[in-house]
């Protein structure tokens, strides 16, 4: 349908659009139509003057505005009819008794001009198909042959005046092209006002959608920040718990070492001012365990210095200084600390 000439509505120049869409080209301008309107006004004035320029009817006629045009761009049927006479075309009222007696099928005509109040538009056959060339539409509207008569009848019911265009229309590219091919229309054109309203609504919906998306992005950012904060707090609590556990472990080891040191200092000579070597610590631990073994033997039995303390499972243990694991050493140190503390309490109680 790109080859079809279709002027869209501008202001109130529907009469100009109607004529140009009918003739399929920019044949008339507002200036040319205004010239025709002024010519018609002058002819009417001259007819009124025949009754006398001093008559009341003539003075009243001069005071009235033009009936063929106005400042908005409206032009009367007389202007349109005179404009078409230039091309050898004439208008006949569709529902007039004279035309109805002819019994002509609308499909066999070439074009119609429709008017309601101050609006004009053209319905024309191009090639073998009919088109509604209303300037208020966003584009030409395809009308089937079976729908044409119903379409015209509907316009009459709505109050439109329909005129049949008689005569040979000037040749146009769209008519020649559509004589060879037929077109199909998937979507009917909308009224220009409806399209503008739809575009405005789409812009409003787009703006609302952008606002919602922005709000969602902001809330998402807040949710992510809150999640990051919760994770940081959880990690901080875990670190504090680990530090507390490590501190408790260090305090337990420190207490056990202090108890072991006090026990060893009571049973063995101290070496002041120097650190004990691993061999000396081994010997002292061995002496301590032998003493503990002697205290556990029943009276009257001799302790066997060569016997080694047993492990927690009851099996004979290896050399505590050579083969004890770190866990056994820590357990032994804690046991030594607890026994030392109990011994200290017993001593203090006796005193």
The percentage helix is: 40-55%
| Order of secondary-structure elements | HHHHEHEEEEHEHHHH
Distance between the termini: 121 Å
Gyration radius, to the nearest Å?
57 Å
Quaternary state of this entry equals: single chain
Number of helices: 10
Can you list the strand order of the major beta sheet? 1-6-2-3-4-5
Mean pLDDT: 78
Tell me the major beta sheet: 6 strands, antiparallel
Structure description:
The protein is of the alpha+beta class and 351 residues long. Helices cover 55% and strands 9% of the residues. The protein has helices spanning 14-23, 30-49, 56-63, 77-85, 97-102, 145-157, 173-178, 192-267, 278-296, 326-350; strands at residues 90-93, 111-116, 119-126, 129-132, 141-143, 161-166. The chain has a six-stranded antiparallel beta sheet, sandwiched between helices. The chain is rod-shaped. Residues 267-274 and 300-323 have low confidence and may be disordered.
